[in-house]
Amino acid sequence: MMRIKLPNSYFEESDNSIRLIWRNTLYADFEKSLLEKAIKRKFKIKPEISVEDGYLTVNTENEEIEKFVAFLIQSHLGEFLKSKYTRRKVLYIHEGMGVPLLGYNGFGLIDRGTNLIQVRGSTGCNLSCIFCSVDEGPYSRTRLLDYVVDVDYLLKWFDEVARFKGKGLEAHLDGQGEPLLYPFIVELVQGLRENPNVSVIS
User: Fold this and answer.
1) What is the pLDDT of residues 78-90, one digit of tens each?
2) Total number of domains constituting the chain
3) CA gap 7, 2 in Å, rounded
4) Which domain holds residue 111?
5) Torsion, CA 88, CA 153, CA 118, CA 190, rounded to 10
6) Same structural domain, 169 and 114
7) Where is the Radical SAM core domain (predicted)?
8) 197 and 101 in a common domain
9) How are beta strands 108-111 and 116-120 bridged, if at all?
């Protein structure tokens, strides 16, 4: 029996699907039968997939299957990724997409010409406040999609803006929603602290 675990994640099983929980805030559901068919087609065996103690288990010891399943899940993660809190589809923004992180209010960086740079790693909220000015939360009537920005990409853009603006900056973590739901919040704060131009993180 082979046990598969991906970084910063664990698996859950429901009737016909395997759910990958990633960083406790995002998830993706994969049909068990499709995973089994892919393994059968590639390796000419009849696999049985289940979940045990957060690990995905496959009834084989072939290490190539482990690599294949990990690759299969990771390469299709973007198609199925959803927010655990809003249940909306998530668009994961990374450097390979070439999306600029300045100029949009929903995610990225906002520079309003002061020493404060707003840092927005994600959208989405676990609450549905009736007074919310951006209609966020699980019961939103207008939101169709959530955004999550890769932390390395976000920090790369921040470093560029900070280099241009100079010392004495305040990096203000906010967002259209709850900023602490950002899956990489710890890494983001660590990266901002390491920037020599940042004096305050708020």
Assistant:
1) 999 999 999 999 9
2) 2
3) 16
4) 96-201
5) 100
6) yes
7) 122-195
8) yes
9) antiparallel
